[in-house]
Design goal:
It is a single chain. The protein has 378 residues and is mainly alpha-helical. It has a single domain, classed as MFS general substrate transporter like domains (Growth Hormone, Chain: A, Up-down Bundle). 82% of the residues lie in helices and 0% in strands. It is built from 15 helices and no strands. Helix 4 runs antiparallel to helix 14 and helix 10 packs antiparallel against helix 11. It starts with a helix and ends in a 6-residue tail after the last helix.
Amino acid sequence: MPYWRFSNFYLFFFASLGVLVPYWSLYLKSLGFGPAEIGELMALIMATKVVAPNVWGWIADQTGRRIQIIRLATLVALIAFAGVFLGQGYWWMAAVMCLFSFFWNAALPQFEASTMSMLGEKVHRYSSIRLWGSVGFIVAVVALGPVLDSVGTGAIPVAILVLLFGLAMSTWLVPQEKRLKVEHHSASIWKVLRRPQVIVVLLVCFLLQASHGPYYTFYSIYLEEAEYSRSLIGQLWALGVVAEIGVFLVMHRLLPRYGAKALLLVSLGLTTLRWILIAWFVDWLGMMLFAQLLHAASFGIYHAVAIYLIHKIFTGRHQGRGQALYSSLSFGAGGALGSLISGYLWSGVGATQTYMFAALLSGLAFLLAWRGIRSENL
């Protein structure tokens, strides 16, 4: 398998995410938007994940032309994002973000399905490919921080556009799949979704990602208001992803040894601790460093386990829609709701209470996973 060709996609996709997530809220703030408007605009990016991955997942599963769909989605996303240079009003920005993210969010779930399909019996090697996405995120977030200190937030949309161009080009390095055989006789996807454990897994993913709402939307603003420099903010984001890479390097050993349920519970418990630390100790750099290291659990362990579980749950012709459903319910619906609520809480009750609300959500996810997932079935 040509691992490096798949790694290139992850590199550029998460490099663009490494600019969009940490810095886009700062750009919106520089345009004069308030916390509620920033929360709404960030939520729109997440909300399109509710619809887009499922639409494109259905098309991919029906046509078997997954790579062509990925190429189309990344190209249109690039063109759509260029619209941010044509206007800065709230409704224009909302329209551009909706169109851009509808196609951008379509690409990753289908690429995940292609990667897992190409890996075949070696699905535990997924994290070794995915870690290059983390490398891209680190390079982008660390490199851009000093640039913003020097030239200001105007560099943010330019950086994203360049990375989206690289992403679109990377899709042409991926070898064309043999056309997927469409098996109409396999069990309905609704039969799979009615299984109690499947419902629990998807609900846990939804709550965990909703708890990340304040982090993805306001963490950079939170640190900037606590008088952290933009360079240091970028380094803190990067530290979290370095920890994530460390986990990806060993997940192929951890999963067979400890099992999916145990690792998921560890992830959810440490995520809850992370939000509590961020809520109460933002002025203590040492504690922020430790909290960022916990990103290894809140994203690294969680995501590797979730991808593994979704691949086991949705088989055959349901793989594309399974990955799409995971993306839409967790990063989409969960992320959108988390961003939206955090925007209103940030304005109403303040940062500390907003992060404590996040801890409540991840704590609830822990309880659901503990009681609702039977380890022998994982």
